[in-house]
Specification:
alpha+beta; 8-stranded mixed beta sheet; 3-stranded antiparallel beta sheet; 11 strands; about 25% strand; globular
Amino acid sequence: MPETVPVADDEVILSVCFFNTRGSTAKMEEYLVLGSQSLTVLRDAFYCLSDFLVSDHDDQNENTKDRKVSSSYFFIEKTFYNDMRSPSATDYSRVIMEWANDPDRQEKNPHLQGLQSRLMDGARFLDLSIRLRQPYIFMHQGDCEHVMMFTDLRLLGPQDDQNVEAYPKQIFRTRHMRHKCRMCSAYPAQYVTKNDFHSGMSPCYFCEKCYTPFHFDTEGNKLLDHDVFPYAHTNML
């Protein structure tokens, strides 16, 4: 049984919310984090389905329920905090920084000045300069963007969990509804497709019975190119 590590008496606790990609008012998850923790612990704790979509073109998915190291960044007060723990990670902020650092562009838009880039695992929450209830950005998987917000900041109290290992502590998670097959609407989804022109929507969800006859002919030939992933519902992790 692991030894309990007590939280320091002068520790700071922050509340952090993540919002759905489809609308900044739809809260997905909320966590309590310690000021002494690094940003990577929050990255590892946050669940989004897109972190578990692996197509036939990918060699492997390094992400697990408790550790997610695919490329991502937090953008907080003009600083990109990049997760570069994986050898195959991509610095998503580089192309933005190159675009923003153009002198002519900065002259026209002074707000582009002063952008910085840091490693996520080298930054602690207590090192950040933040504004409560100010929208910030978490970006992962290339194009999956979530608004995040610090909603509270306070000292540790006697009512709080006194064990360091309890943090990040999830205090809210929206109900995840398992998708049904979009073709038959009868069976639960087993596959997710993207860039699937034949289905008419992206992403699209298919059950085991519908996926193959919809995408392959009777001889097993693929009808149209598309990306397909196993449906990684949160209850399956």
